[in-house]
Design brief:
TPR_rpt; ATP-binding; signal; 5 strands; phosphoprotein; Heat Shock Protein 90; coiled coil; 599 residues
Amino acid sequence: MPSIALRVLLLFVPFGLNATGLRASPAPADTLSPAARALQRGIRSYQRGQFDSAITVLNQSARLARATRPHPDTINLLRAYNNLGNVAGDQGNNPRALGFYQQALALAEAARERRFAAKVGNNIGTLFQNWGRSEEALRYYEQAEREAHALADPALLADCNNNKGVVYEQWKQYGRARTYYQQALRFYEQARQPHNVAMALSNLAIVQKRQNDFPASIASTRRALAIARQTSDAWLEAATLNNLGNTYLESGQPAVAEPFLQQALTIARRLPAQELVAAAYGTLAQGAAQAGRYRAAYDYQKAFIAQKDSFVNAERHRQLSELQVKYDTQKKERENEQLRYENRLRALAQQKAEQDRQRTLNLAGGSGLALLLLGGVGGHYRRLRRHHREALARNQALFDGEQQERVRLARDLHDGVGQHLAVVRMYVSELQEGGPDAPAHAAQALTLVDQTIKEVRSVSHNLIPDELNFGLLRALRELSHRVNQTGTVQLHLHLGPELQQASFPRTFELALYRVVQEVVNGMLRHADASEISLRLYRSGPQLLVEMADNGKGFDTRLLTQSKGLGWKNIQARVGLLNGQLRVQSRPGQGTQVRIAVPE
């Protein structure tokens, strides 16, 4: 059974969550500017995990800061951008997070706010580290460290050393990681930040344990435990007790470990903290198995699984609640659009009535002009109705597509993941009874668990492809590779050299990728083509996507009669990107699709 050790804190605490970050001023709310008050509300929403609310309020803070007169409120503006970067990073949208951090960094450098610039640079380093680009992360940390030395800022020096320790720990250079954690510990102590002292001690203890230096690891963890008790931090105390028990287990002392684990379990239940309860049960199961108490190990493992399922279900409930909020918001937006449309119609009717009255008054001398005005109003009225119908059609296509996606996701979870887990549960129940078939049941259960993991990965990939984490160009290369691997169709990809260093907002990349994916899938299913070309390049302020196949073609007039969601979804997504879509095809002459979107 694998060890269950907890990082006591995040390896890097995002600014806005601790005193060393880019927080709003702690002054009384009635003395703060509107931008600073909005910033405080946004940070509180972020701390609670209410990301949608945080984004809305932090954007409001940024608007208020920009509108401050006679000069923009630079400090609160860069703080708002920095915290927007934190939110985007926590949501996994690294390109968007980097954009906000870079805006905050540019403002800090322009205002010569060296301390803020160093802290934002540290944040960018953490973003690159989470992105798997540790070398770039290290460069940002070292740059921030040089600034911290110049400013003689021990808290910032501590953050830099702690983050460098994380990089070297990931590289499994435990000696260097240990040195940097020790330096971070010294600077945190100098800055009198007990919570961060406990974090550095926890990181140091984990590296010491990986070096099999168990006495040093136990000593570091006990120091962190003392700080948790001094600061009355129950969560920190429970996590540290679990880590201490885990270290004793790995050093071969299960009897010494159990009292600490039982204390961790008691505190975690009292909080309550489901993730800590699950970790304590898991470590207790490991200890009981190590001591040969297999019945107790089984009971603890059963409790661990139940608690973990409860935690996962709670998280799933939270995610479903967020989806419901987004659905309700979209529904409200459609209702508001309908209301605005009706108001425009009423205003137009009033305008027409006024025109009719004026025409009656001037009938004798100006009947020709009045009729011309009436014709103009009628034309405007028809255009308004047409634009509204097109907007409603786009919204309905997106709504139908989202509903279809929800149904598909529910079906995948129920038919795939749900059925696999039901069978796994049956095998585990049979394992409880023992018997000669137990080894076969265990093997079958493990096989189904592996299949379930693959199924979950497939569902996750369908929601947001993993390759988009590395940008649109990488995702298109992966799409081309998958198509070419089939051996039936050859997809020729041409990417403009001017795009090799380009980056786009995550929402833009996802929308454009889905459009390309939908068109390519349509060509694969219906065109009977042997070759497809896909070209992406920049032309002035526009990004152009050109796709063509050598298939059987079709009559494009059929697109207006199609009842399927494919082309409607494509048209709706291109419309939301403010782009233009052109489709050319004739029977026997293949199909060409051209999309132009503003960057």
